[in-house]
Amino acid sequence: MNLMKRSLGLLTLSASVLFLNGANPRGATRAQMADHNSMTEAGETTQAKIARAMSVRPPTVAKTVNENVSGALLLSATSLSSPIARPEQTTDLSPLIADAMSAAPLYISKDATIMDWQMHTLRRGSTKWTCMPSRPAPSPNPMCGDSDTMQFFMDLKNGKKSKITHIGISYMLRGETAADFKDIRREKPPQGKDWYHAGPHVMLVFPAGSAKLLEGIPQDPSTGEPYIRPMPDGNAAILVLPVAKPLEEIRTIRPEEQNSKR
What we know:
With 262 residues, this protein is of the alpha+beta class. The chain has helices spanning 2-23, 25-53, 71-80, 94-101, 106-109, 147-157, 255-260; strands at residues 113-115, 121-123, 130-132, 143-145, 168-172, 176-178, 196-198, 201-205, 227-229, 238-242. The strands form two sheets. Strands 2-1-3-4-5-8-10-9 form an eight-stranded mixed beta sheet. A two-stranded antiparallel sheet has the order 6-7.
């Protein structure tokens, strides 16, 4: 008798479970939709992060660039795409790469590594040079530097006295527009002051022990003559060698262009 009661109890419980699942299929659907939405939101969040990382957009960039982004980055960008991704979430690296390359002569920048200012690699290169696109500012300010220059600025970013042992060389052939001449870390000008501008130039960074060699050089970027820019944390000043005045531009005239004008 007890065995029959237990069997009937189990049958009743099974029927109740089946009834509940059958009577409320929307509950299962909602659970599936919630999981799908969570996955979608996670994907969108990842894309949003990349979009923010690549959000630096220079005022003027070339519309096309003949260099290809590395296969690994293309694969990563493809894997983050989804059928429901909105157009504004897609990441086009070509403008950033073209802007970064414009900082130096093409024979320097064409094989350089391209990185953004969050130190993400946009394109792997095969030389000691690294080019970076413009920071947000009223005018373009991309830079291409050698390995010593990149180490110098990484140390500055981390608040350290740089331990480089060689002079570092970099190009800023589109000029520079920055927030504060005396504070390289500022992102916006101090209250009541405007952005400062420097013309297209070549820039040299020095080991900290070389600071005395730069004493007596002016600190005026407006004249078009060589000047130094002071650096924090006990680092030597940067020596800037302009090739044009602030807000002026230079361009390369190729041999075929020169021949066509004769």
